[in-house]
Records
---
Amino acid sequence: MVSLIYNLIIFALQTQGPPPPTQNRGPNLPLTENLWILLIAGIFLGIYIIYKSKRTTINKEA
């Protein structure tokens, strides 16, 4: 009976939820600093791939 009461008390304490997050943020990851550069590089790479695929389909038709 004592263990049942103990388990109920522990369960009730655990259901209160986690503590709120702290306001201390860690240092930025290297990826976050260069995100715009990576996005622009990806856009240019996509344009290049589309250009090359269009160019090869035009050459195959001729």
---
Amino acid sequence: MQAVAPVPEVDGHVHKVEGLALRGMEDGVVHLLAVVDDDDPGTPSAELDLRVVLG
């Protein structure tokens, strides 16, 4: 691991990442889909689009 970055805040807090999927990779940039959840059964999970620049 070369770098660590915080998971973005959504609605003022950081959710638990429950899954990651690779959307694609081009020109040294990896596009990921993160499924996040805050353990509230009444609220559906959210999706975050993440971009990782390989260095």
---
Amino acid sequence: MKVFTVLYFRFFILFIFIAITQDRAYAYEPEPEEYWNGTLGPLTIRSLSPAQSLRLSPVPRSPYGLPEGQTELQFNIAAASVYSSQENLFVLDYHFTDTRFAINRGFANNWSAEFSINERRIVNAHLDQLTLEFHDLFDIDQNGRDEAVKDGTHIQISEYGINLGKEARGQTSQTVGISVQKVLADKSIGWPAIAMNFNISYEMLHDGLIEHGAFDYGVQFSVAQKKNNGYAYANLSYTEFGSKDVLGMPLTDHQFSGMLGYEFNMEGDEAFILQYLFSEGVVVDIGELSEYSHEIHIGYKWRTESYLFEAGLVENIVNFENSPDVAFTFGVTYKL
């Protein structure tokens, strides 16, 4: 598995290099198109790593803000399979879904605001057979998954006396979130677009995975540059958390994360997108769970007159014990 994912990461770097090199071969200077005719934006996939996904996890955002008076409705869902273990420390074997509804509105002077409702839930998504077949198809080592109970749920962290089976299913975190974006450098001036986002979330459930009333907040900087064959993206985020534990396991109170990506535009309002997301470990002193997680996103976007559809695949690299085994995502945006 490590050999495969190392090659996977090298392919990502090579893809970005080729895309930029090919872009330099064109004779004309790229100019961003008007909104809804230009970039399709990054894949709307936040971290799906075991601990990082439980609290406010920044969504990769485009710095090309909504025009004044423009409103969008968004729906995104991800289904992830997690299987990781480290001897004498932990066993994590479960599935979860991450669902998001949002409304986004553009205002004057390059401001926009978003209100969202978010839910993360431990479930039996029946992903194990699909995950096994996917790994076999690409000759990825199963890393012990083929020896575990199929579609089982087992969360064990001995140091903190956590040992949960099927009773963990249904455990949920539900938050409301607000994000405010200010475009600092507009795409029309010929320089990279730059934007700053302020994000907050509030835990609504009284008996959920995260303590009720936990208040998370953070800031995110987004950059994008128009290329002749697409767009290059980068995000950097810092988040402060109001919750300090989950299921009795202590968590850190802050996190750095970032994303690099490339949108390769096709004809007919379509694009293939490749992203690399890294997130600081948020678990306190539990082996690999305390290290950075690394996730690769591969996806496709398609835009019509009023809708924008996206589908994505998430795979782990570098740290195989602190990222999802595999995840599948889908999203749709509707322009009012």
---
Amino acid sequence: MTERTLPEIHISALSVAWLGALLFALLPATSHASGWTGTLKGGGQVNVDPETNRATVTRKGVQSQLWDGVHRLDDGSYIIVNSGQVIPNQAILDARTPAQPRDIEAWEGTRIEGYSPCERLVHRVCGFTLACVGQPACEPALQLLEMENGERAASPDPNLMTFTSNQCRQADTDKGFFTSCPQPHGDSVPQARQP
């Protein structure tokens, strides 16, 4: 067995300490880089923790949990909060992955044939007759339908897909949160709720 001399032990311990300090310094930067922030339309900075998806909002220096529901951001997009956690949208996912060049989306300029994407989402999640209105995902689906109807009404061509129409298309693929209503379909079509 080879004995170590005091200078070798000192250098080895110094190297370990330096490496540990470097890793500790880089850890918060790595975690922060994958986080996401946005500004609510009515004011307030939203922060989404990258590890837990917990959403908090800071208004006038006071931070609090963001309540469940659909929240419109100042850029016109929205986030959905369920049980205090954000369901990651494309902007949040993009913040967690390296930037890619944006191609024109296939849905842009597409005419809506029959039911709109948000109407289809509400039909699937809440039921045609709103039989599953108490289901947790029904309220966010109805809020999205209301936002889509507002965008379509303000558009020069209300028969074209809107930003929220595409968000509903994406939400319709999330069968984990937007679960289907088990009730049979009726004849009525749900409309956006009046404020």
